[in-house]
Every structure is written in C-alpha cells, then in structure tokens.
C-alpha cells in the first residue's frame, strides 16, 4: 500500500480519516510531497517510518539554497527509512497526463538497492523509463536538474553576443558614423535593416566555422601525438561539447540574414533608389548597358547562398533529437561532417563572391579598416585550408590509422602492448 | 505457446493443420484478430478458452457503433477467459517493422492482473513501452483512440475559421466593395494576395494573444482568491489546454503572412504601380525627396516583424515533442513564457508601426469602420497591459508567494493548517 | 561481477592487478571490447570463459570484410561461452552520456536465452530499450547497422538525380542553346537562377506525384483482384516503402524553388529589365494599360503556390518521427492522404496557372519540343485523374468494402470461408 503526504490536508481527504501515524504505519512506500521546510514534522513519525521507503520528490526554488540536498536532509532526519530521490525532474503536467507527451525519463538515486527497485517498478508501471543515478549523494545533482537554464548554451550565447556587439559597432563606425563625419549625411536609418543584415551573416559564418575548427585542431593534436588514446586539453573538450549549440545559433542568424535579404525589395529606401536611378538614366539620356559578368556574378552569389542555406537547414533538421535518433552513427557523422564542410564551403564561397574584386579598391578601406565581410572570412578560410591539409592523401592515411586505434609508439609502449599479443 | 486467430484461414496455414479446439487448448495466450462480427464463433470454443488470456486487438470503423466495447463483449461471451485489450492503437506498420520508427506506446487494460502482466512482458520483449490503463471498463476509451481525429485541435480550428471569415468579409467590404461602390473601380483581384495578406496576420496576432490571455486571467483569479489550490472554472481549464494548438495555428498563419509579404515585389500589380509612379514623376518633372522618417519607420517595421517571426519560429520548434522533451521544466517555461511574451510584444509593436499615425486621418474610417489592423490590436494590447500589471513589483510578489503554495487564509483555514505543524 | 576486456591495458588499470585468467574466472559477464583481429587471444582463455556470457560489442570498418559475423567467429573460438551480440549500434557518445539525448534502442541477439536476459537486464538498468533480434545468426545484420548509409534513400536519390539531369539538359537546350543558335544571344548567366528555378519545381512536382501514384495503382490492383489479401508485386511494394523519402526530397526541392523565386526581385538582371521597360515606355511615350485578367491570374498563381507550399511544409513536419509518433493512425493517414492530395492538387493547379494559355502559341514549341512545365504536368495530372476515378461513388464503395476485408470470392473460396462461420 502507498501513502502520500501532501502539503495540504483538505485536498486529500483520505488522509483525514487516518491519523498520520496510522498512515505511516500501514504503507510500505511513502511519497513525501511536503516542502523541505516542513520535513521536521516527519521527524515525529520516525518510529512508524522505520524500514519504509521514503520517496523524496521535492525541489528547491534556487540552487544552493541549503547546505545539503533535500533527500540527504530527510535521510538524516529519519535514519531508519530508505530515502529514494525520484520524480522531481518531472513536471506536474507529465505526472497528471502520463508520459506520452512529455519527458519519459525518471532519474532516481538512493542508498538502498531494494528501495530503488521498488520505486523503479512503480515508475515503469506508470510508463516512465528509469535511470538509476547511484547513491543518495547524487541527490543534489538531481535536485539541480529542474533549475537548469540552458547550461550548455551559455558559452555559445556569450560568444554570439560578443561577436554581434563587435560587428555592430565596427560596421556602425565604418558605415553610419563615417558617412556622417566625412560626407555630413545622416544614414542612421540603415541600422535597422542594412547594418543588421551585415552583422547577422558575419557572425553566423564565424560561428559555423567555429563548429568545425575544434575538429580540425583535434586532428592535428592526434597527428602530433600519434595516438587517439590521450585526452584532449580541457578547453578543446569543452569547445567540442558546444558545437551543436554553436551551429544552431549560426543557423538562426543565417535564417534572419535570409529573411532580411528577401525583405530588401519592399523597403522604401530601395524603391526610392531604384526609381532615382531610372529617372537619372532618362534625364541624362544614357542607359547603362547590360553587364553579363555582373549578371553571372550576382546570380552565382545568390544561388550559392540559397544552396548553402538549404544545406544549413538540413544540418539543423538532422540535429533535432527525434531525427538524429533515427540515424545510424555513420549517417549522423556523414551529415554533420561531410555535409557540414560542404555548407561551410558554400557559405564561405558565397561571401567571397559578395566581395569579388572589391578588396582591390582603396576606397573600400575607410579609415584604414577592412570591410566587415573580410573580417568574417578569416576563420572560415583558415578552417577550410586546415581541413584540406588533413585531406591530403598522406596525412589522411596516418590520421585514419590513428583513429582506428593504431599508435605511433616508443619502445616502452611496445613492451606494454606485447602483453596483449 | 501462443495461438493467433486471424480472420482469414488461408493466410495462416499453421492453423489449418490443427483444429480450432486443439489450437485453443494448447495455447495459454490467444490473440484474437477476428472482426467483432465473428466473435460469436469464439463462443463455441468457450470451454477450451477457459482460464486463458485473450488479447483483444480489434478496432471499430467508427465511434459508438456498438453499445459496449469489443473487449467487454468478448469477456461477456467467454466469462471464463481473461480478456486483455491491447495493441489496438498500434498501426499494422509498427507491428510489422518493430517500434523503432513508430509509436512505442502500448496501452492495455483488463480485469486480471496476471493476464495483463503476461501481455506486458510480451510487449516489452517486442520493444514497446507499456502503459496500464486499468480495468476492462477502459476498453472503450482505448478503442476510441485510433478513431480520434485531432480532438484537441477542434476548438482552436473553429475559432480560426470564425475569425478568418469575419476578417475576410470585413476587409472585403471596406476595401473591394467600398472601392466599387464609391469609386466605381473593380479591384477584386486584390482578394488573392493583398486581402489574404491582411487576414492572415490579423488572425495570427489575435490567436497568439489568446495563447497568453488565459495565463493572465488565471493570475488574476489566483490573486483574487488568494490561493492556487482552488480549481479554475471549466472554460478556463479547457482554454489553457488548447494554448499549444492556438499558438501553432498562429505560427502557420504568420508563416503565410511572411511568404505573402515576400512575394509582393514580384507581383504584376506592384510592378505596374512602381513603374507608373516613376513615369509620373518624370512626366511632372518633380521627384519626391527622400523621407528619412519614412525610411526609419518602414525599416523598423520590417525589422521588428522579422525578429518577431524568428522568435515565433523558435517557440514553434521548442514545442516539437522531441525538443520539448529534451528541455527541463524551467527551460520550457522560460521559452514558452518569457520568449512568448517577447514575441507577442514584437508582433504587436510591428502592427503599431504599420498603423503609425494613420488612426488620426478620417479618410481611414471608411463607412465609419476602423481598419482591420486596429481591430486585431485590441486583444494583444489588453494582454500586454494586464501582464504589465501582474509584473508590478507588489502584485508580482503576492502572486509568486501564492504560486509557491502560500495561502491568504481565513481563521477556519488556519485551524486546519495547524494540523500540519 | 563484470569484467571488461579493452584493447589497451594501460587505460584500465584494474585489469593490471589481475591476470587475464583470474579476471575471466571471476566474472559471469564479460564485455569483449577487443578488435576482431585480437579475438584469437581470447581463445587461450577458453577454459576460464566456459559457461560465461560474452558480450560482443565489436564493429567492422566496412561491410563483408569477413566471411562470418564477428560474434559468430567469437562463438566458434569459444564454443563453451554464451556469446551475445549487443550495444554495437550505440555510439561511444550514447554510452558515455546515457541514453537521454541519443538513440535508446539496444539490439541484441544470441543463442542462449538466459545470457540474452542477463544482457537485457543490464541494458534496461542503463536506461536503454532492448529489442531482441533472435539467434546469433542475426549478428551479421546487427553488425551491418552502424555501416548503413541511408539505404532507403538510395532509390529516391537516384531518381532525383536522373530527373534533375534530364530537366537541366532539356531546358538548357531549349532556353540557352536555342537563344544562342537562333538569335546569337549569350544568356548563359540564366543557368544559375532562372534555369535552376525551372528544374527544381518540375522535379519536385513529379516526385510529389510519384508519392501518390503507387497508392492509386494499389487501389486499382485491389479492385481488379477483388481482395486485399493478395501481396502486391515486388516493385510496387518497394515503391510504396520509399514514398516518405520521395516526399521529403520533393519538399526540399520545393523549398529551393520558393527561395529562388523570392530572390528574383533583387537580381541584377531583373532590375535591369524592369528599368529598361520603364525607360522604353517613357521614350515611346505610351504606357501599357493595367490588365485586370493578368493581375487576377498572376496573383492566383502566387497565392495557390504559397498555400500549396504551406501544406507541403505541414506534410514534412508531420513526418518528423516525434510528431508522427504523437499522431493516431487515423490522424496520420488524414494528413498524409487527404492533405497530401490537396497539396498535389494545389501544386498542379499552380503549374497550370503558370502555363495559362501559352500552350496555344506555336512560338512556345521551340525546336518542336514542349516547354518544361508541360512535361512535368503529365504524371501529376494522371495521378489526380486516377484518384478522381477511385473517388467515384460506385468505385469508392467497392474499394472501401475490399479494404475492410470483404472479398469477391469464387466458389472454392467460399467453401474455405464457411469454415469460419
């Protein structure tokens, strides 16, 4: 029989007909749904709870509110009971509606294996999947789960904010402030669309290349060390763990870039300028001839960009949990690596086509600074060059062997390996 | 040993070598894959089926075809057997290919716990997740599952159709019919694009605000009652349960609005008008000067709209089951609440920028009716104002305390609470 | 107790303190994480491994590297052990981080039920879902899983490449080469955008109609045979199995078509032509009048296209694993069938509107070939006509009865059916 201690008596009338002592006595499994502040009330029931399984489902309002985890505190109060921490990561929603639409995973921990087993059986019956996280000392970790707010997104978001701020102020200076200072023109209205549409793609391209840079660095590390069985430095490990987040932010910015670009022809400013150019052609009575190179260049630029964005979207879709779960490991790495580098190549090439031969003209280097698109081309170009180096037949062969477990060993390592043979 | 009764003998030769009686005798678990109309044939085997587990997998062609559920009817025919309703919600596809690509969930119900356990063991072995729905009286509910056609989408869809029809006829009257009656011009071609592109965003914005209105109302209810432990009225509960659907329809309409807007510059009508404006400027030999305020206003309008749509998409992606399952409760509510209100604010602001100072001009109120964008601003503006009220420090503090379980209690409630202490 | 044999001793110090023999002796479950080339080393431990459960987690670098599966080879080397193939389909990532973010499915096979049960228990404890694939002879299949590279996408991809190549060269000849040969104009720059934007929608529409053609063919087969209990020919079965992939590729091409279409107004070529048309109107001092039919036609064309693409996207979203899992069978077939045919109708109608009355003009049949859009209309039109035939009341009634299990039987079949009654 179960017994449930809820914080509010009048909601659970069953408990009113039985004294707390009788309830505690008769149940073998007790769900403690009381706020931590009221745990001391349970202490009075300690004799009746002796040998019982106490399921602690409590959560705190913020991290590190108390020196010890709620479940550990409960265990200390009633040393004779078997405290199991469970269900706290589930929302009330999931508990009420069953696991069909919400997270199925139930994490539990506790010091007594039988007690954990009893809770696991109930969870499975309710349709949840159980994951045992070990002894009660893991309770703190479990209690921190529902309080997490995108911990793995923090580093990529900070990087994004930093890069965005840098490009914004850099381009603001070069475009708006330069025009104001040198030509006395107020073109501040360009901030909303033109400037934003330069900042978004620049940051997006850099973030995308930062997804692939750690893989390239790891390759060089492995080549240099001659083994894959040495841990990477911590910064590289942490970097590799946030590649997915970097890629998704890059995709979001690329989508905004696409949207902002497609809005261009309905902008008042653009329509005004186009009409002005037509009017001036008529007034001066000379029409500019059609430039086939220009047509080729701009069409290629748009076409490559559209294909690159298509691949970008494909990468994003394949990183949806339900899609990536349906892929085999080889399929996932094909998409994320092969198609990923193709995306990076398309987007970098798109940016080079945008620049075209403009890097030759001195007028482009206002106040001796390079245009924004040049700055954002540095990292992706480096990544692509390094990747090409790794793809050279001789290098690729060594790296493949290392990744299959081969080691470039010194004499003392060989002796150890001979143990195996 | 299993035995399976299929509707067509010649497909299952194993059954032809054995008499029905022998088959029923030798198996401990019998899958009944016969149409309900043929159940009476099983009655003749009742003695052999005594004490056996009968798994009823049948479905009906429509709801309420029969007075009792198929499984209950089977149980009545063969009272000695243990009927378990199961597997009927799975498609033939899932049964043939295993649960890797399709729904893993198997619902079962029955009166005999051991019989249910036996079926549960088989389901688990086949890779499915089992959810026990209780006694055989739940069979009707299980038999209705495969016949469901988006029950939770019905209310939001009706609302959408109603709002769309209203805005369509309202705008048709104000735009097309007004122009025909007052100016004798036939601009009915505008129905396909211009009118649609006014209806979609109006309905979308209202639906989005209707996602957030029940939350605000619930807040005021809780403040007024001083407790969170009282049930909301039924209409509010039902409204809150279809917020996700409201939001997704709003997103679909917003996407159409974006698509229709981006198509604008390739429309024949728009190109004709732009060329006409250029030609008339030349003929009259006066060019309109560049209007910086206009540039600021329109660019802000587009930019805010694009950002709002980006956030909208983010909300949509995070409501995909596999994505929302990967989020902690706090993360999910951060996205759906904080980012949701930001989206609503952006989209409302976008609409205000569209209106700008036009509400000042009498010519806008054709036939004394306000333009469509004004009508659709009412609900979102109210929601944002109410939300701001709830965010006032003093109100927010009370509400937070109530949501953490605090109650503004009268004397008789206090006495009950003292039982806990 | 577990024992794990890893390829590198120095990484697993626990094993250094114990001889291999002692380790093998003391464990009841041995994880073999050694490359296949080193399996012979285990042969020396055969006596100690007698009666033990050996879990083979190995994978090969490519298919068909060895005549027998790794697990079967291991079983042959140590006949006294109970070899279970398992965990090889999981990535190192999933094993390290638990199943929360990656594929939960563990496939296992083996000849000894108790051994499999022991491995299943461990897998479940680790939070994985177990699927038993039968005896050890299934090991080869399991070892091929991680080496699979989109096997079900191969046929649709080949079809797509073939159709794309055909339409590309067909349109290249008719557009670019024709203009060069007959008029001496070089319009090769149109390859990047204009031509691509004709190839994508053509192939997309054909692929979409190929999704629905097999269903129509199957309907006629069932009508002709008078039963649903006869297997379809192999080619039809294989075709039906790749409908999802056909549809998703069609959606990808349709998205590119939308993107390429929306880019049109920012193209240099288009802006040049529009300015040129305005200039020539002024120079010739005659403005073309507004054509209401043209406005209706083009706006309908864009509007239908946008709605069709919206439905297309809906189909795509509903085929995401996590979304389709949340749908009942009836809901899924409503979307994929009813909405699918609506999408096909919208997209076909969109293409007819594009063509309009142009099929009447001889000038359209350059070099006596029909334009590309006519070619791509053949299959979808056929599918829609056939579907309409199947929807005729009398035909629909027969087909519904057949699909509910009714059979048009000859006398010898009737006698068999009477067995049931």
> What is the CA-CA span between the terminal residues of chain A?
58 Å
Give the strand order, joined by hyphens, for the main sheet of chain A: 1-2-3-4-5-6
Poorly predicted sequence stretches spanning 5 or more consecutive residues of chain A: 6-18, 411-421
> Structurally, how many domains make up the residues of chain A?
2
Per DSSP E runs of 2 or more residues, the count of β-strands of chain A stands at 6
- Approximate strand percentage of chain A: 5-15%
| Oligomer designation | homotrimer
Helix content of chain A: 55-70%
* Count of DSSP-assigned helices of chain A: 18
For the sheet with most strands of chain A, the description reads: 6 strands, mixed
What is the chain-wise order of helices and strands of chain A? EHEHHEHEHEHEHHHHHHHHHHHH
Class from helix and strand fractions of chain A: alpha/beta
Summarize the largest interface: chains and residue counts: A-B, 61 and 56 residues
The average pLDDT score of chain A comes to 83
Which geometry of chain A do the CA atoms define?
A: elongated
What is Rg of chain A?
Answer: 31 Å
Domain Ferric oxidoreductase (chains A, B, C): 203-346
GO molecular function, one term (chains A, B, C): ferric-chelate reductase (NADPH) activity
Family (chains A, B, C): Belongs to the STEAP family.
Membrane topology (chains A, B, C): Multi-pass membrane protein
Quick rundown:
Chain A is an alpha/beta fold and 421 residues long.
